[in-house]
Design goal:
The complex is a heterodimer of chains A (528) and B (333). Chain A has helices spanning 2-36, 40-49, 51-82, 88-96, 103-113, 119-128, 140-165, 168-176, 181-192, 194-210, 213-218, 223-234, 237-263, 265-269, 283-317, 323-357, 360-368, 371-374, 377-391, 399-422, 427-435, 440-469, 472-477, 485-494, 498-527; strands at 83-84, 279-280. Chain A is an all-alpha fold and 528 residues long. Chain A is globular, with a radius of gyration of 24 Å. By secondary structure, chain B is an alpha/beta fold. Chain B contains 13 helices and ten strands. In chain B, strands 1, 2, 3, 4, 5, 6, 7, 8, 9 and 10 form a ten-stranded mixed beta sheet that branches. The longest helix of chain B is centred in the first third of the chain and has 16 residues, at 2-17. The chains are: A mainly alpha (528), B alpha/beta (333). Chains A and B meet through helix 12, helix 16, helix 19 and helix 24 of A and helix 1, strand 2, helix 3 and helix 8 of B.
Chain lengths: 528, 333
């Protein structure tokens, strides 16, 4: 009897999730069709002329950013989860606050700070004299610096989570067997953290591969920037699609590697974890902890925010903050709220479908829903543009197109956030509801949604934050005259109007704060 | 809750699609808002036609126009670079204008078929530090390749549209070999250290960090307006008897082929080529009005006072690909 009850619901879910997954695949289909139009000779040309350089640039950037985020993320997570010290909670916050600043804002701010006349440039000249040229950011190290401080928070979050849950008894056993604390860290703690580190680094690397804003401001030629230039400078869509296909292959490799590491996680967390005890920090440790965390915060948050405040003040005094500015703020909020809601709703059937079936099909749906993560924003935007123009021309020029783009770009975030909590929903709970006479709708609203609440909220918040910061797809797909804060930052920054870019950047950061606070509170409640 | 959501979305869609039917012109603009707003403000006051500026990068907007085809909501396209305008004309995105309307602008500053019209011109000039005499020997842009300028030269990166346009003019006035060796020489002089903004070049020359830079003329006057005592001067290159003259580039406008409001679009073009519109359009950025007889901003060298390279602006689009190939083959940063 329970089988007959479950059948119609599964087909409903499968129908809905098929629809969502089909939508999500639109950009990939576009890329495949267009790169299929490339002649063999053109492929050969791309292969020999562009790919070696691009691969080298992209991979060396990815490796440097991975190293940078690893160093920053793991060290700060370890200090904060293993030592009790004054201001520990503040420190946790300081480590995630960089997430409120988009990479292109970091890039923009640091290029102006390191100019000869910028704060850091002046400091440099003060220390080393006028004759030593100050370091420039327009190279792989500059790009790696910017992307590391902008991305290490992901590693921090995942690793500190794993550290609070990790088994201290194993570490203690290792100490009893005569290992020094340093050996314990390298031989016991670190290997146990491997899945969390892998997941965090994969997230960071995927962001590097698809980053458009920072590399375009720093003019560092990665795949994404080259694809964009290929399309916009030379109008060569085929070559752009060909390059995108290579990028997809590259990103998929990373995703598979990450899955490989994550699947081993079960082994580590199988036993019931004993709560970690934090040891009170000694005076020396306290000095060290705060100098290190303070250094990170200075560059990843305090300096950029100080810059924003100074220039916003300047703009305020010149009364450059007009009614139009509040219009941009409103536009940004509207699209972010709409996209977050849409993505959360759309991800639900995919996650539920997988929870129920757990087979190859549902697994592949999950992968297909992740396309937004492996394709660069400009390519997703173009794919959606040509899809909408040929299939749904009547929605062209409306907010719907932009919402669709945000949905496809950030669906993976929503699905991943819900996937975890869906696992708590055993089929028997729903069946119990049905057998007690609940309609499918009641089942959904009274059982499924309350159980999934945490996952739904995280999904909403994550998509909200990323939509608020989204640049490349918005640039191409926004309705006419519909400017968001990132679009304004980009426009003003490319015209070098610092005073005008700063208030937008500041608003963007302030807009992210409340939802981030909400997410962290929920996260704390879950780990307590 | 679900119904509320649907209503919410429906309201938004309506709010935004209703904009399409209002009586207003939509301009895809690759020119800074700041320089175009004063012009459309006066236009709106005069005609009552509202103008919506959809600002972005010139090339990205051109792509958008191409993809949108007949579904575009754009009525006009404005770019700071003749290369982009010509590219759009080649792609068949624009509607040729009446020669009576745009005839007031010289032939060389508009498309052959009048599918776009130049509105203001910028000169590619040298900015020189007046205290540093090491670059005094420079009389031509080609002297910038001289090894004596190693470490003293400031140029932008090679994807800057003014840079590409300048190189295209030099290519048309000379030949591929000349441009190639010029670029190679400059590359040897600057290494990998190039600037991302023209205004930073002027700053660097003013502070004495660099001796000479290649910029559009108005950046020099913009800097002097803020810092009147800055030790910099303009040098107009290639003025000797057999020299090619200064490279010009124009900002201009075109009417989009699939615009549904051609009459209003023509009105805006008419205003922008009128003496009043020309003054407004060019002078906010200290450019040269494209229409002869309309004076440029004060202090800017008058256009009669120097020789301009004899290259039609439409060449900037037709030969952009060739220039990009040379830049890439040299590997300019």
């Amino acid at each position: 009897m329970s089988a007959s009850l479950a059948v119609p619901r599964i087909s409903m879910r499968s129908a809905l999730s098929t629809l969502v997954v089909l939508l999500a695949s639109v950009p990939l289909i576009y890329v495949v069709i267009h790169s299929g139009q490339l002649e063999l000779a053109e492929w050969a040309n791309l292969w020999s002329a562009r790919l070696p350089g691009l691969l080298f640039n992209t991979l060396s950037l990815a490796i440097l950013v991975a190293l940078g985020s690893f160093t920053l993320g793991v060290s700060s997570a370890w200090l904060i989860t293993r030592r009790e010290f004054v201001g520990r909670r503040v420190a946790t916050w300081l480590m995630i606050l960089p997430l409120t600043i988009p990479t292109y804002v970091f890039a923009h701010i640091y290029t102006s700070l390191t100019e000869r006349e910028g704060w850091l440039g002046l400091l440099w000249a003060g220390i080393f004299g006028d004759d030593v040229p100050n370091p420039e950011l327009y190279n792989v190290f500059g790009a790696a610096f910017v992307l590391s401080i902008a991305g290490f928070s992901y590693v921090f979050l995942l690793v500190s989570d794993a550290l609070t849950r990790s088994r201290v008894d194993i570490e203690e056993a290792a100490r009893l067997h005569g290992l020094t604390p340093r050996q314990v860290f390298w031989k016991v703690s670190l290997p146990m953290l491997r899945p969390a580190i892998a997941a965090g680094l994969a997230l960071v690397v995927l962001h590097v591969l698809s980053d458009f804003g920072a590399v375009s401001m720093l003019r560092y030629q990665t795949f994404t920037l080259s694809i964009y230039l290929q399309m916009s400078g030379r109008f060569d869509f085929q070559a752009a699609a060909g390059l995108s296909l290579v990028l997809v292959a590259l990103s998929l490799t990373f995703l598979i590697l990450e899955r490989f590491f994550r699947d081993r996680q079960r082994y580590y967390s199988a036993a019931q974890a004993q709560r970690t005890k934090r040891r009170a920090a000694t005076k020396v440790e306290l000095t060290f902890i705060w100098s290190w965390l303070g250094l990170i915060t200075t560059f990843a948050f305090a300096l950029p925010v100080a810059w924003m405040l100074v220039w916003t003040w300047e703009a305020w005094q010149q009364s450059l903050i007009t009614a139009e500015f509040w219009g941009y703020v409103q536009n940004s909020l509207v699209i972010s709220v709409a996209a977050a809601t849409l993505a959360t709703v759309a991800a639900l059937p995919v996650a539920l479908f997988h929870a129920r079936l757990r087979n190859k099909i549902s697994q592949s749906y999950l992968h297909l829903a992740s396309i937004g993560f492996v394709l660069p924003g400009p390519v997703i935007a173009l794919g959606i543009l040509s899809f909408v123009l040929s299939m749904l021309p009547w929605i062209y020029g409306t907010m719907f197109v932009l919402m669709l783009a945000m949905l496809i770009r950030f669906l993976p975030l929503a699905v991943q956030a819900q996937e975890a909590s869906v696992q708590q929903l055993s089929p028997s709970i729903e069946e119990a509801g049905r057998s007690l006479g609940a309609t499918p709708w009641e089942n959904l609203t009274r059982i499924v949604i309350p159980v999934l609440r945490t996952g739904l909220v995280s999904a909403w918040v994550l998509v909200f934050i990323d939509t608020l910061k989204e640049l490349p797809a918005t640039l191409l797909l926004r309705p006419t005259g519909f400017d968001t804060l990132p679009v304004r930052i980009w426009v003003e920054a490319s015209e070098e109007m610092l005073e005008l870019a700063a208030p937008s950047a500041l608003m963007l950061m302030l807009g992210t704060l409340p939802v981030l606070w909400f997410l962290m509170r929920q996260h704390d409640a879950a780990t307590k | 809750m679900k119904r509320g959501l649907i209503t919410f979305i429906a309201l938004w869609v309506m709010a935004f699609s209703s904009q399409l039917f209002a009586e207003e012109l939509i301009v895809y603009s690759g020119r800074s808002d700041k320089f175009i707003k004063p012009v459309v403000k006066v236009f709106t006051e005069k005609t009552g036609i509202k103008v919506v500026l959809h600002t972005g990068s010139s090339t990205a907007l051109l792509n958008k126009l191409k993809l949108e085809g007949e579904r575009t909501s754009a009525d006009l396209y404005i770019s700071n670079d003749a290369g982009n305008l010509q590219k759009g004309a080649e792609l068949g995105l624009f509607q040729p204008m009446d020669s009576k309307l745009v005839g007031v602008i010289p032939d060389k500053l508009r498309a052959k078929d009048n599918s776009w019209v130049g509105l203001s011109a910028r000169a590619r000039v040298l900015v020189v530090n007046t205290k540093d005499h090491s670059a005094d020997f420079v009389k031509s842009v080609f002297n910038l390749a001289d090894p004596r300028l190693k470490g003293k030269l400031a140029i932008t990166h090679s994807s800057n549209e003014s840079y590409i346009a300048g190189a295209t003019v030099y290519l048309r006035a000379n030949n591929e070999e000349v441009v190639k060796s010029w670029l190679s020489g400059m590359k040897a002089n600057v290494g990998s250290s190039v600037f991302n903004k023209h205004s930073k070049i002027v700053k660097a020359v003013a502070s004495g960090r660099k001796a000479i830079g290649l910029v559009n003329h108005y950046y020099i006057y913009r800097h002097l307006a803020k810092h009147p005592d800055a030790p910099i001067k303009i040098v107009l290159p290639d003025q000797r008897k057999d020299d090619m003259g200064v490279a010009w580039n124009v900002a201009g406008a075109a009417i989009v082929k699939h615009s549904a409001k051609k009459k209003a679009a023509n009105q805006l073009i008419e205003f922008m080529v009128s003496e009043e519109g020309q003054k407004l359009f060019a002078n906010v950025n200290r450019e040269y009005p494209a229409r002869p007889g309309v004076p440029a901003a004060e202090k800017v060298p008058t256009r009669a006072s120097y020789k301009v390279a004899d290259v039609p602006m439409s060449d900037l689009g037709e030969y952009r690909g060739a220039t990009l190939d040379i830049i890439e083959s040299v590997g300019m940063p």
